[in-house]
Amino acid sequence: MGTADQQSSGMRWARWSAVLVLIGIGAAAFVLSFAALQDLAVMGGTPPGLAWLFPVIVDGTIVQATMAVIALPPKSAEHKWFSWILVGGAAVSVSSNSVHAYLTGHSWGGALLAAIPPLALLIDTHGLVLLRRAAQHDSPPAAAVEIAPETTADTDTPDLASTVTAPTPAPALSPVQTFHTSPRPVAPLLPVAVPIPTGGN
User: Fold this and answer.
1) Cα–Cα distance between 89 and 50 in angstroms, integer?
2) Residue 130 CB contacts under 8 Å (≥ 6 apart), including other chains
3) CA pair distance 120, 59, nearest whole angstrom
4) How high is the pLDDT of residue 150?
5) How many CB atoms lie within 10 A of CB 90?
6) Distance, CA of 70 to CA of 167 (rounded, Å)
7) What pLDDT score was predicted for residue 5?
8) DSSP per-residue codes, 19-32
9) Range 142-167 burial, b when 16+ CB lie within 10 A, else e
10) DSSP 51
11) CA atoms of 199 and 132, how far apart (whole Å)
């Protein structure tokens, strides 16, 4: 195995290790944030059977907006829109976790501590998308088909168009001539004897 292959294998191993670590940290952050947001939803009057939808909406919006921000072109209107969605979702998640910690009897220090899981979820999601983009850039490009350049004719080479003789035009046809034959001789009429009636018996 060459040096380039060893470096490529080492990069893949490091990338996959980072992906696994980020997935583990992101899952832990999601669980902690999920529990706080679900409890906060119950405290706000949401039925316990439906309270789990609140953290799914908030943290799911963060994940979706993060992926959209990285995938879209930086100066597009869609990128700007999802950037605002990402900022709003992160603000809701961080503030909700902090408010939950404060309402459950913890000090402001506990409120600041409760803001770490949603921030970690945001950072880990961003890191996973960046690693995926880096893996796509490092993948070997598809083999390009080389197209031979068009050869230009030299000045010494005679032009083929000039060497081809133009076809000679077909001779013009003379007008159609009609030939009249002399009429056949007509046979002379022979006298016919016509009987003349005579009076008598």
Assistant:
1) 20
2) 70
3) 11
4) 57
5) 21
6) 67
7) 65
8) HHHHHHHHHHHHHH
9) eeeeeeeeeeeeeeeeeeeeeeeeee
10) T
11) 141
C-alpha torsion angle, residues 88, 91, 97, 100 (rounded to 10): -90
C-beta separation of 63 from 128 below 8 A: no
User: In whole angstroms, what is the distance from residue 19 CA to residue 129 CA?
Assistant: 10
Tens of pLDDT along 9-49? 777 787 788 878 878 887 888 888 899 999 999 999 999 99
Closest CA to 40 of 48, 109, 29: 48
* CA–CA separation, 168 and 197 (whole Å): 83
Q: Rounded to 5 degrees, what angle do the CA atoms 21, 22, 25 make?
A: 85
Q: State the Cα–Cα distance between residues 57 and 64, nearest whole angstrom.
A: 10
Percent pLDDT > 90 in the chain is 15
pTM assigned to the model: 0.55
Can you give the pLDDT at residue 190? 56
pLDDT(185) > 90: no
Quote the tokens at residue 5. Answer: 């292959």
